[in-house]
## 1
Amino acid sequence: MTKPKQYQDTDFKPRIVGFVCNWGAYSGVEMAGVDKREYPASIKLVKVMCLGRLNLGLVLKAFELGADGVMLLGCPEADCYYESGMERAKELFTQARKVLHLLGIEPERLALVEVPLGRGDVLAKQVSTFVKRIAKLGQVRRVRERKQPAQLKKGLIGAKN
Amino acid sequence: MPKIDQIIADTRAYSCLDCGKCTVACPISRYDPDYSPRMVVYNALCGHDTELLENGQLWSCLTCSLCEERCQSGVQYTELIKLLRGEAHAIGETGQCTHGGALQSLMHLMTADHLSQNRLGWLDKSLKTATKSDVLYFAGCQPYFDVFFSDLGVKTLDIAKGAVKLLNRLGIVPALLPNERCCGHDLLWAGDMEHFAKLAEHNLKEIRRAKVKRVITTCPECYQTLKVEYPRYFGSLDFEVVHISQLLAERVASGELKFRRSVRKVTYHDPCRLGRFSGIYDEPRAIINAIPGLELIEMSRSRASALCCGTQAWMNCGSINKQIQAERLREASSTGAEVLLTFCPKCQIHLRCAMNDGRLGEELGIEIEDVTSLAAKALSG
């Protein structure tokens, strides 16, 4: 079987998690499908109601479980369905990048992108650019088992109160 | 012998007289009638393993050791909790991770074999460090705390900077590990032995490679973990572990360390890993008393009776923990002190978090400072 075009030169397949806002960016995802726009399949999308719902724990968890890059796909700040969601996402983005830098993981592996309502072209382009960037950076430099930690057996971890 | 029976034997839980002093002393039981140290021991002794490991109570314990302090039968309750959590973790149980599990992920990420951290960015020109030295300063997770808790105004790196400044003043130029990992304290106390072991092995390898004779810590959790837990699991250490309070108190006594005058009323909160776990009560007080003008007023519960800062291992933090923190902060304010001193970056984070409250903020507010950074600021000349 021949490899998909974008991986022909290398065996490295980036593993990318994309957190997608239900409103702006996800409508972009749907529109990209309707318009049959191509973008790399390396990105696994996780839909959230708003990027303001994310926290540092979720971003770091993605890296812990072996992601080579994480994309936060939201709306233009002024269009946020919940008004302040993108503001919070920007704070999280700055904070998470600082933590990644401390850990010696290139901060560029985390991206925050604004996708206006229904813009499949913007989404496809941004994802393609990001996947290329990660492919260039390569795998996060660490050797570890990708075994799921035992604590996840019981389901999602998160604050109770 | 089945594992839990072995744990009961190792921690002397069989000596329990069912007197209930532990539950009376327990800060959690005061607010949560469902939690009882006595019942944990009872369930362990009666073989109620499912109840013991799966009902979630196991993760509420603050491991503050106040019950152990009160126990007349010598039941090692915190050790019992630690070992039981190990068993519970092995069957897929876990506590509720606070902060969305961010700190747990951070610790897991640090178990990687290849890591090139940028954790020493806080060092500036005024601080002298060496690549080779007999003394190592183990800074702990402070560079990360300042990013994680920037919204609380936490500046734990002041502790690290203060520590190096104080060491320099004593003529010590410490080495620092550029790839030091988390000491693993919180994973150990969450029963995650696998990841704890990885962190510990990495740290031991790095410390041995640095060929140091002495490791100095400012975090009581790092101190207790390196000094007591590492040898327990990995054999005796070929270096000495010292908490900075021990070193400073020694040098204050010998007159090598002198401080500027600073007129203030202060009170001191004993961190559990430094106090009840390590018996270091006098050293912090000796340092505080060596600063002229500082008046130390003790809280009604201090030294071995000190109340915990309310949270442990970044787990199960909620309204009950908040009440404990509020209780401690009110106790500190009621002494009339202007500043609440502590010796643990995490006590500071937890207490600051409790102060960050829309309704109770003003009532609970008190200036809070670490003894290390206070001493560094008060250095004469």
## 2
Amino acid sequence: MKHLKLLFGLCLAVIISAFTLNNTSGPGLDIGDSAPDFNLKDVNGNMVSMASYENAKGFIVIFTCNTCPYSIAYEDRIIALDKKYKGKGYPVIAVNPNDPAAQPGDSFALMQERAKEKGFTFPYLLDVGQEVYPKYGATRTPHVFLLNKEAGDLKVKYIGAIDNNSKDASKVTEKFTENAVDALLAGKTVEKTSTRAIGCSIKVVK
Amino acid sequence: MKKLIIILCAFLLVNCKAEKKEAIQQKATISKVKVPEIKVLDFNQFENYIYQNSDKTYVVNFWATWCKPCVDELPAFEKLNTRYQDKNVEVLLVSLDFSNQLETKVIPFIQKNKIQSEVMILDDSDQNTWIPKVSETWSGAIPATLIYNSNSREFYEQSFTYEELETALNKSINTLK
């Protein structure tokens, strides 16, 4: 009986997904799209855009913030990603998409404080005016967009989570983002191009 | 075969954890009066709650104590629960708080806010696998709400006001008529 129920549920899920699958693409970037550059202020006051990184092969753009428990849980892993891949041509660029008016803990001053406390090795930018995250289609923090430079364009190669265990780094069994960057470095195609994870919604003033 | 054993072990471990939590929960019930009963489930254990086959309409809200927009919209779900509980509607509040914060965060929150709807914790780290099983359209951001019955299944990755929530619920209820 349980199997029958499960089967029914599965059928239902398939039928529903057939009708709603288009929504997953939604607004924002899909795999293979060209990602737009940005010009945003870093916590140390410099304006940062991807065009200024002449030698980069691509970028690990991560929408993240100070206040989301999942973002906090990933801070050390984001630093590790940057340390591991910056030298190989794929630096991390972190962007805080939240409006500080809606989430005071994500103000520019508190971003500066957090970056200093944790010793961020990567630029930590504020999406002032919240124009960048909708173009990317980021919906939560943390949310990774892996970009690869191809003929002057920044092609989206992976969208999703950093790995498969947000709660406990020691229990991770699949490093989604690392696997994707490793594939690019090896000249292979990325196998898993998108993943999902629980995260905090992006804070907007209503 | 090895894989099977690993899966079995993992399942047993998860079960032990859940039982331990229940034991703690029971102890708390004895020492304090009226501590809410909260299940801690992995996705396998939880899945039945999003595929219940009855004449009811189920409103399943995914939230967490640390999620401000979730906390802000909880009163709307509570109001819905009160107004519709004798109209064949069931509200379920699924917390995505880490289960080790059950006693420190979730139970105090429920007591302080006098939450009446049923609350459970879904604690399953393999999110990339289970999120699409809840809804193919869910990116993983919360708050998020699933409203379903035997004729319809709608998923909303958004915040609700009471009016919006009631409209969404009635849209689902109307499919039963």
